[in-house]
Amino acid sequence: MPSLLITWLINAAALFAVPYLMQSVTVDSVATALIAALILGLVNSLIRPILMILTLPVTVLTLGLFIFVLNGLMFWFVTKLVSGFHVMGFWSAIGGAIVYSIISWALTTLLQRKK
Average pLDDT of each block of 10 consecutive residues along the chain (115 residues)? Predict the structure, then answer.
């Protein structure tokens, strides 16, 4: 369970950092980042696998590039569920999802090396 809590906090920190790199994404507070990270994790765990299977032919045809679109859609979907978390449009959602993933990956990698 502590590992899950640490992952959630890392993802919330990554989400809170995204607006500093992209003006088209805003997160109003740390509490908003925590809630959005939790919902984003749930959406990515529950809905994303179903969408990956349903869009597999398109993903294969685009050589995997459609996964960026799915990630952006999931990111954008969470903005509709969480007040205080805003993205200015579809392309901003794709960019925000990419930046969020990179920051989350970097923080996870840095924290895992210290163990």
Answer: 85 96 95 96 94 95 96 95 95 96 94 68
Q: Domains in the chain: how many in total? A: 1
Residues 15 and 43 sit within 8 Å (Cβ to Cβ)? no
First to last CA, the chain: 17
CB 6 within 8 A of CB 112: no
Give the whole-angstrom CA distance, residue 47 versus residue 33.
Answer: 20
| Gap between the Cα atoms of 14 and 9, Å rounded | 9
Whole-angstrom distance, CA of residue 15 vs CA of residue 27: 8
How big is the chain by its Cα radius of gyration, in Å?
14
Kindly report each contact of residues 83-86 with a partner whose C-beta sits within 8 Å and lies 24 or more positions away, as own/partner: 83/32, 84/27, 84/28, 84/29, 84/32, 85/15, 85/26, 85/27, 85/28, 85/32, 85/33, 85/35, 85/36, 86/25, 86/26
Residue 47: give the domain boundaries: 2-113
